[in-house]
Design a protein that fits this description.
2 domains; 11 strands; 297 residues; binds L-homoserine
């Protein structure tokens, strides 16, 4: 049996649309084994326990790629990453499936080949890259190859995820984006994404609030999220370093100084007055990425 642990991820990080992402210490576990026949999926809603399951279809793609003929598959899922909330749950499922299948097939694919297949399935690399590699990663795809580089963030930060009780699919959240953007909006983002990377590496945390600004996706997607503007404004007005939409949303991610003890109570109090329920979860950076363990039955 193979156990794969994959971290949650927060993609885009404001201006880094489709290229920045960070792994956080919230995990899905996948326990996968080859069985004599059939497909057994445990630990998810009945509607996902069939051959359309993303973990299983990702396994099939990996088996096809490496030319392995499997007999049957059993998948057990233990998940803490909320689904369709902008925290990389699909990326975790895709990687869990590919890594599990690759181990069953004898470890044919190397790490970069796993990343390329995962990106092919997901469509963009900014969740799968940090989920696989850990830490904060800049990644992009060119000619079917994925290029990635780790950003070594200065110590002293933590994250706070504000997770609403409603889902937002990446498809819907991408469909609302414009086909074209003004040249000045491109320039706006180039400056902020550069500032984000440089400020995080150099520990210039006072620059982060400016570096979280973006004109490629956040303002369009904000309209799909109840109270988005009010919540981000509130977070900016209290003791936080920066606020951005996590991935395609609807989770809002707040960056805090490590020792900040006041933000949590302030935001819980604020969110409790709103119509929807918001869960507040403090998170740290995961530096390990996806981890594989072989377990004896
Ligand atoms: N970069 C992607 C997006 C992340 O913003 O659509 C979503 O998974």
């Amino acid at each position: 049996m193979i156990e794969i642990r994959v971290p949650a991820t927060s993609a885009n990080m404001g201006p880094g649309f489709d290229c920045l992402g960070i792994a956080l210490n919230l995990y899905n576990h996948f326990i996968i084994e080859e069985i004599e026949e059939g497909l057994i999926i445990e630990g998810c809603d009945k509607e996902f326990a069939n051959d359309n399951n993303l973990i299983y279809t990702s396994m099939q793609k990996c088996f096809e790629r490496v030319g392995y003929k499997y007999k049957g598959i059993k998948i057990k899922i233990e998940h803490d990453i909320p689904v369709s909330r902008g925290l990389g749950s699909s990326a975790a499922c895709i990687l869990g499936g590919i890594i599990g299948a690759n181990e069953i097939a004898g470890g044919v694919l190397n790490r970069d080949e796993i990343l390329e297949l995962a990106t092919e399935i997901e469509g963009h690399p900014d969740n799968v890259a940090p989920a696989l590699l850990g830490g904060m990663i800049v990644s992009l795809q060119e000619d079917n190859k994925v290029y990635h580089s780790r950003i070594e963030i200065a110590k002293g930060l933590k994250f706070c995820a504000l997770i609403p009780d409603f889902k937002l699919s990446t498809e819907e959240s991408r469909a609302i984006l414009p086909k074209k953007i003004p040249y000045k909006d491109g320039v706006f983002n180039v400056g902020r994404v550069s500032l984000m990377i440089s400020g995080l590496i150099n520990g210039q945390f006072d620059l982060i609030h400016l570096a979280c600004k973006d004109r490629l996706h956040q303002k369009y997607r904000g309209s799909l999220i109840e109270d988005y503007d009010a919540i981000t404004k509130y977070c900016e007005s209290v003791n936080s370093l920066g606020v951005f939409l996590s991935g395609a949303g609807p989770t809002i991610m707040v960056i805090l100084k490590e020792g900040n003890d006041s933000f949590h109570n302030d935001i819980v109090r604020y969110l409790s007055k709103l119509k929807r329920n918001w869960m507040v979860k403090e998170l740290n950076i995961d530096f390990d990425g996806a981890i594989v363990k072989h377990i004896n039955k």
